[in-house]
């Protein structure tokens, strides 16, 4: 099907894209600036705009495109550009060096006149915790379920390259790890929202339903998860979901001489809007946490929220909350940590039933604290309209 395409990409690359579009039967117009492009929108001279993802691309250009129903496909040359464009609500973002077949596929999946206004609220939440099993995965699963129950579309990613555990915790098959498959598709430029849906699994139930990209079943497969591909997967997930929750491994070591096993976790921490750092509420767990949290602060690109998990008097004394808060303030300069009370029976039921805490123990004190944490992380929405219909449209097809 022939389309009227405006190409706003400079230099030789712009000429290549325009020539390929013409060769495939499209009517092409080269534009040299945003005013010219906006004028073409207003006069309804184009159906699709292919633009460069530079810093000049902003809401000032997206708003008239949305108003006139013009499709927008953006060529991003860096990971930073992809992240910024996804924040702007752009879903059709491809690599600047992508082949014409990849660009044309993006043209075909662009939303067009029936698209809803772009939301600028997508957020990535990384959940990290040091060695010693502080309950990081349980917190990540709980946040995904709670945010889904707050009427947000959610994708949960298991990016732990040492001991992925989201799939067994939720009773999901992990023979074909969704996250590794998504990374491979991103490497070849073939990752789309439809592919994310295809390779992911549904978890939870009812209002607490969310999608999961399961982790690698064997730690030896960590080489399948390259940091640049991780960024691309996050960007694609952010394009379709309100919230992306990522469970990352404890180890954060760098290898300057080549590929590092922990590079995926480091990439996620750098790309996340919020890092939820989980500490175990016992003397050893807090000691481990305060030793490594300065290093975590150096890696993150967003804000840091500390969660102290399984707070109980038997491990910290008669006033466990005060003891944990005092230790964090004294040794790490952390104030206002979120305290999750210990509720081992409730978590045991959740593990036994392979379900989120919110669905098996809704009145648990731990669940209520995690719900409050999810509320504090809730991203603002540009339109305050319910999204239940969106979740069924985006997240239900391809259920496995």
TrEMBL record:
Keywords: ATP-binding, Nucleotide-binding
Keyword ATP-binding on entry: yes
Domain of life per record: Bacteria
InterPro entries tied to this protein: P-loop_NTPase, ParA/MinD_ATPase
Claim: Transcription is one of the keywords in the record: no
Residues spanning the membrane: none
Protein name, as recorded: MinD-like ATPase involved in chromosome partitioning or flagellar assembly
Record lineage: Bacteria, Bacillati, Actinomycetota, Actinomycetes, Micrococcales
């Amino acid at each position: 099907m022939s389309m009227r395409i405006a190409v706003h990409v400079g230099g030789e690359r712009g000429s290549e894209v325009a020539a390929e579009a013409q060769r495939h039967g499209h009517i092409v117009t080269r534009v040299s600036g945003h005013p010219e492009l906006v004028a073409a929108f207003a006069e309804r001279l184009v159906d699709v705009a292919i633009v460069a993802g530079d810093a000049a691309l902003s809401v000032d250009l997206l708003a008239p495109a949305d108003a006139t129903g013009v499709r927008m496909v953006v060529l991003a040359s860096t990971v930073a550009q992809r992240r910024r464009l996804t924040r702007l609500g752009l879903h059709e973002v491809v690599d600047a060096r992508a082949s014409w077949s990849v660009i044309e596929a993006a043209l075909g999946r662009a939303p067009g006149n029936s698209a809803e206004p772009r939301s600028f609220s997508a957020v990535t939440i990384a959940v990290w915790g040091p060695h010693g099993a502080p309950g990081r995965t349980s917190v990540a699963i709980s946040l995904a379920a709670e945010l889904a129950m707050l009427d947000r579309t959610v994708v949960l990613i298991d990016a732990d390259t040492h001991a992925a555990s989201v799939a067994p915790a939720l009773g999901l098959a992990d023979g074909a790890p969704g996250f590794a498959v998504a990374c491979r598709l991103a490497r070849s430029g073939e990752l789309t929202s439809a592919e994310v849906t295809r390779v992911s699994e549904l978890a939870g139930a009812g209002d607490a339903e969310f999608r999961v990209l399961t982790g690698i079943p064997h730690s030896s497969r960590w080489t399948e998860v390259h940091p640049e591909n991780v960024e691309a997967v996050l960007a694609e997930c952010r394009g379709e979901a309100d919230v992306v929750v990522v469970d990352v491994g404890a180890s954060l070591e760098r290898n300057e001489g080549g590929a590092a096993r922990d590079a995926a976790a480091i990439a996620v921490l750098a790309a996340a809007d919020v890092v939820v750092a989980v500490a175990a509420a016992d003397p050893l767990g807090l000691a481990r946490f305060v030793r490594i949290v300065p290093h975590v602060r150096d890696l993150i690109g967003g804000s840091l929220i500390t969660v102290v998990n399984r707070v109980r008097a038997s491990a910290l004394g008669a006033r466990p909350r005060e003891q944990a808060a005092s230790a964090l303030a004294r040794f790490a300069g952390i104030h206002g940590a979120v305290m999750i009370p210990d509720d081992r029976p409730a978590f045991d039921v959740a593990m036994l039933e392979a379900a989120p805490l919110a669905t098996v123990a809704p009145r648990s004190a731990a669940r209520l604290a995690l719900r409050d944490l999810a509320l504090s992380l809730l991203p603002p929405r540009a339109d305050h309209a319910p999204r239940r219909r969106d979740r069924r449209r985006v997240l239900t097809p391809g259920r496995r």
